[in-house]
Amino acid sequence: MDTTREMKEIEAAIEGILFASGEPVAVDRICLALDMDKPTVELVLQKLADYYSYERRGMRLVRMEDSYQLCSAPEYADDIRKVFEIRKPAKLSQPALEVLTIIAYYQPTTRAYVDQIRGVDSSYTVGLLLDRHLIEECGRLQVPGRPRLYRTTQTFLRAFHLNSLDDLPEMPGMETDGQMRLGEDGTVLDDSNAE
Q1: Which end of the chain is more exposed for a tag (fewer CB within 10 A), N or C?
Q2: Confidence (pLDDT) at 192
């Protein structure tokens, strides 16, 4: 009986932490705060996620890589917007989707690499994606000029309902061995032409 009560208290504590945060919280931080092992915390998180989903609650517990966040259930988005008078988020343009796709599949990558694949200047679109927090700067390439490297963010994972980048669908016609990549000197490598 004490174990059941203890489990309920642990669930309530984790739920409170996630609710108060409003942001994704790393599993390791929860473990540290509650002085618990990772498998137990992950079990409780999964139990909470299943509960919200099965009971059709107004919240969902979303996993993003090694972090969790409480979010409103998507089926109530219109009702929530009405209450808070939130406009629907602006849809991404075709160029923005192209740039985001390239960065998602080839990250970390430079704007020059994106430009080379698209054949047009992508600086405005990269800036737009940075403003929307769908991508972020993650360092610089070690070549002359030291161009910035970009990668996707947790906001990207949340927006596209992905747990991790491993959930990205396979790109049609692109096999792992045939993908273009950046070399150490910043040049584009195309392994598909190698003999």
Answers
A1: C
A2: 45
